[in-house]
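[job 4417] fold queue: 2 targets
>>> target A
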Amino acid sequence: MDDDIRTALDQMPKKNRSKLEPHEDVIRELRRKGRTYEEIAKFCSERFDLKVAPSTIHAFVRVRARRHQRLRIELPDPNLLGTVSMGSDRPTTEGVSEVKKKTEAFKRRPLIEQARKPQFEYDEDQPLQLVRKDEAAQR
């Protein structure tokens, strides 16, 4: 490549592909602190005068998490999802083992229950008739 072209390319500033790129560190820190995408969108609107949808922030975070394996800390730990205790900003692992125990017990239950006696019998050559419980027990 020609030296003049190389110099021109080196002098060109890097173009941001997303309006959120300059605020990537702030978004990452807010995600680490457990903030929702809606809260981050509101924060960007108030602090940076940047109107952005929560879904845009979600896509921004997901793309970077896939591109850079080291940035997986942006996403909440899947083992802690749904275990945040009310009134606390920090996730707890209380109840996780309890849920796992219940799940394992549910998986171990028998799949086929005992066959029940039919409540009525159908014979297409006979008209339908109501049968009392005591008569059905005799059959």
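>>> target B
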Amino acid sequence: MPRRSRHLAGTAAALAAVLASAAPAFAQGYGGTVEDILVRAESLLAQERVNESIVQFQEVRTLCPTPGEIVSSMQGEARAHIVIKEFLPAAGLLEEAAQRFPDDPRIADVLYMAGFARRQGGDLKGAIPLFEKALEHNPTPDVLPAIKYQLANTLRLTGQAGKAGPLVADFETEFPQHQLIPNALYTAAIAFHDSRELEKSETTYRHLIETYPRTQAALESLYELGVVLSERGKRSEAAEFFRRYSNGSPSSPVAARAMERAADMTFFHSPSEAALYYGVAQVKAQSNPTPTVPDLAVSRWLGAKLAIARALSQTWVLALLAGVLIVAAGAAAWFGLRRWRRRGAGQPGQAIIT
């Protein structure tokens, strides 16, 4: 750190210490000291008395709080707004705190929380620079994995898959045993798929499914891996993963589409099997919830595909039976001819006259 920066940091620390020591003398309101009001506000928030807690957090800033207490009050008020799903007002408070007090040791947490609030409020593009700034401020190890994961996920959702995949590709080795590893791997696999790195996507999905089989991310990966395999021309294996997804999540809104895609993968080499899968897809489409994403619903041609698969199945059975009968008749005729020739050769008077 440059000398001038160290000097300014030391001056700021000294000033903060002076303000902190003077705070109890000046920061006194009808509800007690700033510290008392902050404690009361946190208690009210814990009791889910959100609006009352917001009033208390705001009262702190009408007294003579230290910079640290101002940040605490703004953080607390923002958390209260998040509880009642007022995400953008929460983000505004946190961004203001980061702008006014850039040297606060909690700045990375404040920026991460602001990015999270922006994302939850639907402002994905606004969340990205906040997550990036949070990473630049040396976040503590307890929050660093969450920041990287949220940034990667938000980048992917805004069409920046090329940046998202590499960001969490090594998440497992960077943060061993972390609870977000399956989600991070899932995000990386989807990002690789979106950026058309199909081999990397397939490898990541397989690793996730094999290493973390009991997680929700692994279950969702079964369907996604089926999609990747179908795009790579591995139709039989794709059908297997679509079936595994449907069996693992039978009441999912996507289960019907998974069975339809499994049928599509088996249609040409086994129409009878495809007919069975189409039938299951039709039943699930009627009984399961409707997907919120139209692309994950069954196609409008499902009924027609089922009818064609059944017809082909019956036709192929008849054709196979006819083939068997023809072969059997041919064999019988051949054996009959041989038998006739043998009898003819043994009769008197059949010698060749020259």
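[job 4417] complete. Note on B: The radius of gyration is 35 Å.
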